[in-house]
Write a structure and sequence with these properties.
The protein has one domain (24-176): Metal Binding Protein, Guanine Nucleotide Exchange Factor, Chain A (Beta Complex). Helices cover 10% and strands 28% of the residues. The chain has two helices and eleven strands; from the N terminus they run βββαββββββββα. The protein has helices at residues 58-64, 165-176, and strands spanning 25-30, 37-42, 53-55, 70-76, 80-83, 89-94, 103-108, 116-118, 125-129, 141-143, 161-162. The chain is globular, with a radius of gyration of 16 Å. The N and C termini lie far apart (38 Å). InterPro entries: CENP-V/GFA, Mss4-like_sf.
Length: 181
């Protein structure tokens, strides 16, 4: 039996490491063929604690080609630099998401790797595919967990499984508001 929690419980899983960063760290990830790269400039160590989430919605599973979902990180768009010198980035406009929202699913047109980018409803936030990076942090939470395949083991405790990512996006806008990120 899966437990789903409400948006009112979100503050217990998101904490900013330090609202006044002393230094930044840079992480670079690439698609499989290397045509597209993402550079993250973060005020914290990406691997020091769990980061990001796994989306188990059917559309993310199909987009990623994985039965266990797509590992993503939501962060301020200002912390993401996309490099696509050959113009390989393509975007599929998914109008059939479970949330009812239109989702732009960006990927490399050469090798097919999911990439990510700014959300359509909140452009100040980007969702990036963590599979682009050689090291992937353990996720903080899972969303659309009711659609997770039965045999998949959860990577987080039941109290951190959510049904809708919309709740999380709105919460994240509040988390980053006024932090300078």
């Amino acid at each position: 039996m899966q437990m789903l929690v409400s948006a009112s419980e979100l503050p217990t899983i998101f904490t900013m490491a330090d609202s006044t960063p002393q230094s930044t760290q840079t992480y670079t990830g690439t698609c499989l063929c290397g045509s597209i790269s993402l550079v993250l400039t973060l005020p914290y160590d990406l691997h020091a604690k769990p980061q990001g989430h796994i989306c188990h919605c059917i559309n993310c599973r199909k987009f990623s080609g994985s039965a266990t979902g797509l590992a993503c990180l939501m962060l301020p768009t200002s912390q993401v630099q996309l490099h696509d010198p050959e113009g390989k980035l393509k975007t599929f406009i998914d109008t059939k998401s479970r949330s009812g929202r239109t989702v732009g699913r960006s990927f490399c047109g050469e090798c097919g790797s999911p990439v990510g980018g700014p959300t359509r409803t909140e452009p100040s936030l980007s969702v990036i595919a963590l599979g682009l990076f050689d090291e992937v942090p353990k996720p903080v939470f899972e969303c659309f967990s009711a659609q997770k395949v039965d045999w998949a083991k959860s990577s987080v405790e039941a109290s951190k499984q959510y049904e809708y990512v919309d709740e999380i996006e709105q919460y994240m806008v509040g988390v980053f508001a006024g932090t300078g990120y």
